[in-house]
Amino acid sequence: MSLPRQIEYETMLLWRHRDLAVDGGHLERSAYILLSRLRAEGAMSIGQLSEAFGVARSTIHRQVTAAHCAGLVDRIPDPDGGLARKFRVSAEGERRLLEERERILRGLERVLADWAPEDAAAFAGYLKRFNGSIEDISGRRWPRA
Predict the structure, then answer these.
(1) Closest CA to 101 of 30, 12, 36
(2) Is residue 77 part of a domain?
(3) 119 is a domain residue
(4) Per the structure, how many domains does the chain have?
(5) Per-residue pLDDT, 20
(6) Could you please report the per-residue DSSP string of 63-124?
(7) What single DSSP character describes residue 44?
(8) Cα separation of 33 and 16, whole Å?
(9) What's the CATH number where 61 sits?
(10) Range(s) of the domain holding residue 25
(11) Of 7, 79, 88, 120, whose CB has the highest number of CB atoms within 10 Å?
């Protein structure tokens, strides 16, 4: 099997196993990613989110509307005085995001419990490099601490 085929297969399994490893998720994956981006960058408009994620405005609009209806984001005037409304993580969204992140971290700690620290560090480094390569190709960088 070629390396790209192996990587495709293993990343497919990774997506599949993620929720299983963390006892399922309480936030939908799209909401988790949306809240994570807003938390990292601050308030953003539908257009800015569409550009950041590289998806159609209609897709982002549906996701933001669902998050807004669930009380996860607040709609606010543009702090810079622009015409477009922006969205920011609400207090409830912040609470749920942090709760979900802690659940994910506990699951990952269980998965990595018998890994040598240097193996876990190498895996994290390879994932970061892999994601960085994808971001370089797409021209859309994800904010990192």
Answers:
(1) 36
(2) yes
(3) no
(4) 1
(5) 60
(6) HHHHHHHTTSEEEE--TTS-SS-EEEE-HHHHHHHHHHHHHHHHHHHHHTTTS-HHHHHHHH
(7) B
(8) 16
(9) 1.10.10.10
(10) 3-114
(11) 88
